[in-house]
Design brief:
Keywords: Repeat, RNA-binding. A hairpin with a 6-residue loop joins strand 6 (167-174) and strand 7. With 224 residues, the chain is an alpha+beta fold. Among the domains are: 15-87, RRM (RNA recognition motif) domain (Alpha-Beta Plaits, 2-Layer Sandwich), CATH 3.30.70.330; 141-213, Alpha-Beta Plaits. The strands form 2 sheets. A 4-stranded antiparallel β-sheet has the order 2-3-1-4. Strands 6-7-5-8 form a 4-stranded antiparallel β-sheet, with helices on one face. It is 33% helix and 22% strand. It has helices at residues 12-20, 33-40, 71-80, 97-116, 124-131, 154-161, 190-200, and strands at residues 22-26, 46-53, 60-68, 88-89, 143-148, 167-174, 181-187, 212-216.
Length: 224
């Protein structure tokens, strides 16, 4: 199989350097660069590994790059590595890495939520709510409050929470004095609301802006 280059690209060597030897992966936040190298060295000769970190805290974002010496090695890593790494070819360095990371993270979040939410009982992490009562210390409901430092755009927030089945409404409210974001989300079942809170509380949307998601009293018996 030969990978064709676009006419807009430079020489074949430039293309090979920028687009065909570097892969982008989703990894556990506990991984070090040595862990990353250890997991991917079986597919070929690694030139370098790097982990993307939060510029403020220095913590791993759970994303990383692996650069191989040959395009065939990068292709093999993408094809053969565990699916949980979500390995893809990285964007060239001269393109905006932040927008690439955001698109990659958002797309995979969307795939996770769409592909794995139903049935809930098949999700090990969701089942842990049933098995470990101490995981939920607050009364649950079908309604959620979402707070952000930045104002929300109705359509974008609706699209994010609509990834969990059963969204009934998304009501974005604006505070002209603080310019922060506040919204009320309601699902058709408490199970959907629990899952949405579990997945999206602390989620960075947009990157660098963490969402705070808590339950709101909806007037129903939460013991259900």
């Amino acid at each position: 199989v030969f990978i064709a280059q676009s006419r807009a690209s430079g020489s074949h060597r430039d293309l090979e350097d920028e687009e065909l030897t570097r892969i982008f992966v989703m990894i556990p936040k506990t991984y070090t660069e040595e862990d990353l190298r250890e997991k991917f060295k079986m597919y070929g000769d690694i030139e370098y590994c790097s982990i993307i970190k939060n510029k403020t805290t220095g913590e791993s974002k759970g994303l990383g790059y692996v650069r191989y010496l040959k395009p065939s090695q990068a292709a093999r890593a993408i094809e053969e590595c565990d699916r949980s790494y979500r390995a893809i070819l990285a964007e060239p360095k001269n393109k905006s890495s932040e927008s690439f990371e955001h698109d990659y993270y958002s797309n995979n979040m969307r795939q996770d939520l769409r592909g794995n939410t139903l049935p809930f009982c098949m999700q090990p992490e969701f089942c842990s709510f049933e098995k470990t009562e101490t995981r939920i210390q607050e009364p649950v409901s079908k309604r959620l409050s979402v707070v952000s430092r930045l104002p929300f755009i109705q359509e974008q927030l609706f699209a994010l929470f609509d990834l969990v089945p059963g969204l009934e409404y998304c009501d974005v409210q604006r505070d002209p004095h603080t310019n922060s974001g506040y919204a009320v989300i309601q699902y058709s079942t408490a199970a959907s609301a629990i899952y949405a809170k579990y997945k999206l509380h602390g989620f960075e949307y947009p990157p660098g802006n963490r969402l705070t998601v808590i339950f709101l009293e909806d007037g129903n018996d939460s013991s259900e």
